[in-house]
Amino acid sequence: MMPVNYYLFLSLTLFCIGIVGVLTRRNAIIIFMCIELMLNAVNILLVAFSKMQHLAAVAANPASAAGTEAQLFVFFIMVVAAAEVTVGLAIIVMMYRNIHSVDINFLNRLKH
Amino acid sequence: MSKLIYLVPLFPLLGFLLNGLGRKYLSKTVVSVVGSGVILASFIVSLLIFLEVKEPGFTPQIISLFDFIHVAKLNIAFAFQVDQLSSLFLLIITGVGFLIHLYSSAYMKDETEPHFARYFAYLNLFVFSMLLLVLGANYVIMFIGWEGVGLCSYLLIGYWFKNDEYNKAAKKAFVMNRIGDLGFLLGIFWMISQFGSTDFSTVFAGAAETPVKILTGITLLLFIGAMGKSAQIPLYTWLPDAMAGPTPVSALIHAATMVTAGIYMVARSNIMYTLSPVTQTIVAITGLATALFAATIALKQNDIKKVLAYSTVSQLGYMFLALGVGAYTGAVFHVMTHAFFKALLFLGAGSVIHAMHHEQDIRNMGGLKKYLPITHITFLLGCLAIAGIPPLSGFFSKDEILTASFLKSPAYYILGVLGALMTAFYMFRLYAMTFLGKFRGTHDQEHHLHESPAAITIPLIVLAILSVAGGWIGIPDVLMKGGHRLEHFLAPVFAASTALKTEAHELSHTMEYLMMFGVAAIILVVIGLAWNRFSRYEKTSAQETGIGKVLENKWYVDELYDAVISKPLLWLSAFLKNFDKIFIDGIVNGAGKLVQYSSRQLRLVQSGQVGSYILIMVTATILLFIIQFFWKS
């Protein structure tokens, strides 16, 4: 059984990579991927904590099912994220069709 | 008959509505017949009522038409009071008013039709308001009429509204009257809080048990109202300026309506004034001061109407002197005789102005005697009457006032006689410069001189007869036992005041004869002087100097008021205007400008760079976390 700290560090690293990617890259697809990365960092965190809670509860009472709700949450998040990905990709496709680029610096048309 | 009292004010009101609403459709003939006819109808009803009131054993009647104001314990009915005083005033108002309406139909015939009808509508409304004023059985109804005459005087003085000067005169009259009205209104409020009612009967019955201080306060406030309406110092300046209106209007304001309102009000409230000696003294002194002051101004005026206007102010001063010394009958008597001769003089002046094609400067007249015989004779009778030559009406009324003031204090008497002498002097200066000597106008004017039509001369003749004979109802006892029929007639109205009169000393008959005819003799001498001096008047270009210049400029009172009251007020208003413009508007506009400026700056944040948006978002999120974790507790 790995300590929960490892999961935390992994999740934190992934999240930071995501943030840095979002902030520094200009390619819409990369930014999109970074957002997914952040989302999944949170998912890992949720599953890790859930497992920790559940083990603690089972140790006290073997029949207990406490602490498993977060794992259900993760499935929901994945479903919603899948839907979101389709919308996001569709927007990027439309963007490419219109301005022949996926560089977000060209997305300032509304200003003019 | 007194049940039909409501007809008296109703007729002029109908005339006002008919002429006012139909002014675009009615011909001048119809308008003048309606306008004069309604006043004649009122006069007939008034006459019938007067005959009923005159019967011995008549008791004052209050005819309540409907509830006007009914709040908690305060109940003000729309009620008319028929008694000796109001019936006498009804006769004066409708009688003289009718003659003035008749005169107007000829005098104003050059006006276009809608304006002619407008004129008559105003005139009828004026008479209606005045009737309401004298008929009201409580101070509130009186106040409605009081305001009504103020409004109508404004409308009529500014009748020729295309002339800016006339509009200013109208405005002046209105504002001056408002100052007085405020006093009157406060007096009514105090009365309500003291007596819980404004009915004459309740108030007068309660007056005897009221502390003198409160009565003095109420009566002084009411007197301020009378000062405004009856043109006393210091609120008199509007009346001479009111000459801007058509001449018959001046006659109406000066003789039948408006300025007598103050006298009527004080005479009606006589018991309250009698119970308050302080107010009486103030009334007497104000009256006397006005009488003398206005008379001195009249000595040097050159406008035919201005002389008459100041003469009215002066005569009103006499009436207040009479009220102040407790000679209420004398005051009402003088109101009556003054209504006759002042209407006559104004209408005569109108006839002269008509003949001279709107020339009003007496320096350009002279010698009109042979061109305007009827006007001349009637005007002369009017002058003799106002000067107080026996046996014309002015003699009796003025003598009564002077005798009463002598009983109060010889100083009043001497000053009063001085005023009477000045009256004689300026009236005959006016007469001599207008009618005697040789004509001083242009050749063109001389060519067109003509006697006025019958509608103008008939009122003059009627008024001349009244001016001569009007005084015979008030012959003092010393000349004819029981000759003072007016006093007997009015006795019930002033009964309460008469009962309170303490000084009972009578003058000896010799003294009374001496005063009466001594004064008349001096007046005759003064008339002779004026006649002699001004019948040979020649036009000179020499300017008046010294005191003459001050008098010609009316003691610079208008300038004084201008400097002391109008100018500072204008400065204040200019200051407030700037304060408003700079400070108040600054705050309002500044708030708008601030929002506009800050939003223009905020707009720059929306650069359209998605990267910067994300950066802000992440920074803000991190910031929120930091606050959440480290700042919380």
Plain-language structure description:
- The complex is a heterodimer of chains A (112) and B (633).
- By secondary structure, chain A is an all-alpha fold.
- In chain A, helix 1 (4-24) packs antiparallel against helix 2 (28-60) and helix 2 (28-60) packs antiparallel against helix 3 (69-99).
- The longest helix of chain A has 33 residues, at 28-60.
- Chain A has helices spanning 4-24, 28-60, 69-99.
- Chain A has one domain: Helix Hairpins.
- With 633 residues, chain B is mainly alpha-helical.
- Chain B has three domains: 1-137; 138-552, no CATH class; 561-631, no CATH class.
- Chain B is built from 25 helices and two strands.
- Chain B has helices at residues 7-21, 28-54, 84-107, 113-135, 139-157, 164-195, 200-207, 212-229, 238-241, 247-256, 260-268, 270-274, 277-298, 304-324, 328-355, 373-387, 393-408, 410-435, 443-448, 454-469, 485-500, 509-534, 546-552, 557-603, 610-631; strands spanning 61-71, 74-82.
- In chain B, a hairpin with a 2-residue loop joins strand 1 (61-71) and strand 2 (74-82).
- In chain B, helix 1 (7-21) runs antiparallel to helix 2 and helix 1 packs antiparallel against helix 4.
- Chain B is globular, with a radius of gyration of 31 Å.
- The N and C termini of chain B lie far apart (96 Å).
- The mean pLDDT of chain B is 88.
